[in-house]
Structure formats: structure tokens, C-alpha cells
Amino acid sequence: MNPHTIFADIVAGRAPVSTVYEDDDVLAFMDIRPFTPGHLLVIPKVQAASLAELDPAVGGKLFQVGQRLAAALRQSEVACDGVNFFLADGVAAGQEVFHVHLHVIPRTSGDGFGLRGRPTSPRRPDLDYLAGSIKGALSRN
Ligand code: 5GP
């Protein structure tokens, strides 16, 4: 896969961006097609197409910065009664830009944003079976 993305251009200063936060590892800026006004993206400065490629320490920092941004959104002029974090990892998850990014989405009631998922009702043995499978995979990593 071509590792070049528009976010690499943004990090390099080659593309226009409305920045709200920057440090050595992380950049946060306004999404160009916001789901709601004030929708932000937090990205690592280092190129990482997927979570598997991202240093977990930098991944943790994305969340830390996301927390600060959530607090800032609530105190800013953005209409914000709640916040959703969203991260798409992989095509099947809806990822379109292959440079890891955390969406920080300010919410107000009736803003129209939402996940289109319907909860299911698996039996306990099925939950336990998959829990065992995931635990096994964790122990191998
Ligand atoms: P994904 O579907 O990969 O989770 O989300 C990609 C996000 O990047 C979308 O919300 C889209 O609006 C945003 N985006 C795509 N291109 C640009 C751009 O050039 N600048 C900014 N600020 N956001 C972008």
C-alpha cells in the first residue's frame, strides 16, 4: 500500500490545516468534513497506517490529547454537551485515510450523528468462547 497520505502532507506543512494542538509526537486539527461543528482529528506525526504499526506509547498519547481536547471543546464556543471518540482501523472499519487518526466529535442532542450498529444477544458460552480465543491471542503478543 502507498504509505503517502494527505495527513503526511499536513504534518510536513505541505497542505493547509487548521491546527488546535501540536507537540513533538502529535498533531490535532479540524476535520475538513466535520460530522458536527468542532469535529477534530488527532494524529501521530510519525507515519503509521494502522494500529499495528503504531508505537503503543504514541497511541496512548493520542488518547491523552483526545481527553484534553474533549475538555477544551466543552469550554469553547463549540456546541458540546458530550463527546465521542472514534477510530477506524482497517477498510472494514471504515478507515479512509491510512494514517492513524482519532476522531474527537463534539455532540449535542439531536445532532444526527450516530453509529448504525444493532446490539446482539449472544449466550454466555459464546461470550466465554470468544473471550478465551482473544485471551489466547493476547498471551502470544
Ligand atoms: P476515516 O474514515 O479514515 O476514519 O476518516 C478520515 C477523515 O479525514 C474524514 O473525517 C475526513 O473528513 C478527514 N479528511 C480527509 N482529508 C482531509 C484533509 O485534507 N484535511 C482534513 N483536515 N481532514 C481530512
Automatic annotation (TrEMBL):
Protein name: HIT domain-containing protein
Record domain HIT: where: 6-114
Pfam annotation, one family: HIT
PROSITE patterns assigned: HIT_1, HIT_2
GO biological process entries: nucleotide metabolic process
Residue window of motif Histidine triad motif: 99-103
GO MF term (any one): catalytic activity
Active site: H101
